[in-house]
Structure formats: C-alpha cells, structure tokens
Design a protein that fits this description.
405 residues; alpha/beta; 8-stranded parallel β-sheet; 14 helices; 11 strands
C-alpha cells in the first residue's frame, strides 16, 4: 500500500470492509490485525510529515544562525531594540520596522541591538505606493471629523516621512541578517546591493501570485501573511487588500506548494499550537508580533497592552481609518465612529496617516485607547505579560515536544 497516497479515514472503503467482516466472529482476529495495521499506516504518515517539518526548521535555523524558528515581527513603532534583542538572545530573530526611521535612527537602532545581542535581526521597509490623488473637499471632511477626536492637523502631507532610497541605503549599511519588504518588492538594484553585502531578502506576500512574483525577483524566503495578522496588510496593491484576506491555514500550504524557497508563517502565531500547525502546513519558521506586545520590553501604552490581553478574535477588525492602508486593529471607539453612517471614507495613504497623526499622538500620551492606534492580531488573547525571552522559550519548548513525540 502506498503510504503517501492519503490517510485512511473512518469512512474509507477499507474500514467499511473491516466493519462488515467483523460481524463474522471467526474473522474478528484478522479484522483486528487489519485495523491495527491501518492505524499504524496513518501514524507512520503523520510521523513522516512531522519529520519533514523538523528538517525544514533545522535547515532554516542553521541558515540564519537561529536556535528557534521564531522571528519577531518588525512592528514599526513597537519594536524597541530591547525587545528585538530579547527575542534573539532566546534563539530567535529580532525585528525592526524602519518605516518611520531616518538613516541616523536606523544606524542607532542597529547599534543598540548589537550592544545587547549577537543574534540575528531583520529590518523591514514598506515599498512606497504611487502618490495619492488629492481631493480638497474630501480632505476637509476628514479633518472636520477628526476634530472630535483630537487636535486638528495643521496640514495634510502626501510626502513620505523619509525618502525610500535613503532608507534602503541605510539598511544596507546597517548590515542586518535580513532585509524584509512589505507592500511590494524591492527594486532590482536594491536587491543586487543587499545580496552583494550578504543580506538576505524576505518578502511579505498575501497571495500565491504575490509569492511567485517575489520568488522570481530574488526573494530568499516568503513571509506568508494570513488575514489573522495584526497591523497593516502587506498586499502589493492597496486597493485589493480587502479582497485578499486569506487565512494562514489556507495561505501557508498554498504558498509552500507553489514556491521553492522557505515559507515563514505570519498571522495567528501566538502559542505552541499555532506554531505546530504552521510547521505541519509547510512553514519553515513563524513570524510572531502581537504575542510580544504585552512583554515588558515592548513598552507599549498600558491601555493597549491590557486590551490585547482581553481581546477575543472578533474584538479585532480591519480598517483604513488610521493610515489609509488596510490593517487589523482592536475595535476602538474611534474605529466604531468611522464605521457609522455619514462618516467620511478614509483618505488614501499617506494622507490619512498624516490626518490622524495628532489624534494618535494624543491617545498614546494620555493612555486613551479610544483614539489610540492599537494594532492587534486575532490571537491577541494568547499574548502573555512575560519577558519576551520567556515567551520564545515557552512557545518553542512546547511546540518542539509536540513535533518529536
């Protein structure tokens, strides 16, 4: 019998034959032996699947100088060097979301990380969208709406906080183990520069088509971002993000089957169960974000951290109300107001981000969740108020025990 042809299920023809045969007492012993044999076949097939998962993990960890297949998500605005270093010291890979950083800040972050850990880290950048169209009436409506939630912005800007080319150059000079992209692909000349400097490229994808584009462009691994993930969606086309909401359970194996490079599962990975599932589905490692936000090293606003610990999956929602780009957040009072009839639609990125800047800053300063930018994934309730290193060790110890038992 071909062990890879498929598992023997309770409704398979073979077990139906056994059930009929068991009605004849003289054949019970033979039937018992057959049933035991089929159970052993299923067990052997499961063991082989888990063995393959462990081999993928070992190969990935060896390639990137890791002891544990857990990468910290590069969460812009919530990725202090202390958090990233704690993850790396526990055997994982630290992460930095450099979206808002200028070259000096990028260099400073890398220096602080290296002062605390000799482990690997990745640095992430958004690939810029085309310049948005301007609509004075729409912008006025959004500004007036936001006046109820905080200081009105002095002016709206469609400019990026820092030129993308300058950020790319700064990341290459910082020489992280990995540069990762989201919202698109690095330009070929940037890919050539990073590869020449010994830096690997991890590309975020939300669909199989995006993963194939990334692999063809030279990505060394694909971050398969499931719809459960907190923070911004990584869709290459901002207008299609709402339609590209594939969950990790379907996305990870689909991308694994389509590409020839390692797959890193992102979205819903907050405890050992999620890690085991992702690895069994074809991932070589997992990207963890929300599960680290309650760690003391994250140092986020207490109201945000407390709300994460209470949040059920349906207490999060996807919204463009903070930045104009789709992202998953806790359902706050501000988000609820933006969904009411008569509320103006969000402006395109980065205009909406510029418009909400004063409100978001006030929410963080006053520890007011109602108007705070409070990103969170659907597994938020699993986040623990423990040191980041302990979170890494606990998740992997339990996951590895499950994989090798």
């Amino acid at each position: 019998m071909d062990l890879d042809a498929g598992a023997v299920t309770p409704h398979s023809p073979m077990l139906q034959i056994i059930a009929v045969a068991q009605k004849n007492p003289t054949r019970k012993r033979v039937c018992y032996a057959m049933r035991r044999g089929l159970q052993q076949i299923n067990t052997a097939r499961e063991d082989r699947m888990l063995d393959r998962a462990l081999r993928r993990v070992d190969e990935f960890c060896t390639a990137y100088d890791m002891r544990v297949p857990i990468l910290m998500a590069p969460m812009a605005g919530a990725c202090p060097p202390a958090l990233a270093a704690a993850v790396a010291e526990a055997g994982g890979m630290g992460g930095c979301g450099a979206l808002m950083m200028d070259p000096d800040e990028i260099a400073q972050w890398a220096a602080e990380f290296r002062a605390a850990s000799k482990g690997p880290f990745q640095m992430n950048l958004w690939v810029p969208d085309p310049a948005p169209p301007r609509d004075a009436d729409h912008e006025r409506a959004v500004t007036e709406f936001l006046a109820a939630w905080g200081p009105a912005p002095a002016r709206l800007s469609a400019d990026l906080p820092v030129p993308f080319a300058d950020q790319c150059e700064a990341l290459i000079e910082a020489r992280p183990a990995v540069m990762s992209s989201i919202m698109g692909l690095f330009p070929p000349h940037v890919v050539d520069r990073m590869k020449a400097g010994g830096i690997s490229w991890f590309a975020t994808a939300t669909t199989v088509a995006e993963a194939l584009q990334a692999e063809a462009a030279g990505a060394d691994a694909i971050i398969a971002q499931g719809s459960e993930a907190g923070g911004h969606r990584g869709a290459f086309n901002a207008d299609k993000a709402n339609a590209q909401m594939c969950g990790s359970m379907a996305l990870v194996p689909a991308i694994h089957d389509a590409v020839g490079v390692p797959v890193i599962a992102a979205g819903g990975m907050a405890d050992a169960r999620g890690v085991v599932a992702a690895l069994a589905l074809g991932a070589s490692a997992v990207l963890v974000g929300t599960a680290f936000l309650r760690a003391p090293e994250a140092a986020i606003a207490p109201a945000w951290a407390d709300a994460i610990g209470r949040a059920q999956p349906d207490d999060t929602t996807t919204t463009r109300a903070f930045s104009g780009r789709l992202g998953r957040s806790l359902r706050t009072d501000y988000i609820a107001a933006t969904e009411c009839e008569g509320a103006p639609a969000p402006l395109p990125y980065p205009l909406q981000r510029s418009a909400t800047g004063p409100m978001r800053a006030l929410g963080a300063k006053e520890n007011n969740l109602a108007c705070m930018q409070a990103w969170a994934g659907q597994s938020a309730r699993l986040a623990r108020n423990e040191p980041a290193g302990e979170i890494v060790r606990s998740i992997w110890t339990e996951a590895r025990a499950t994989l090798i038992q």
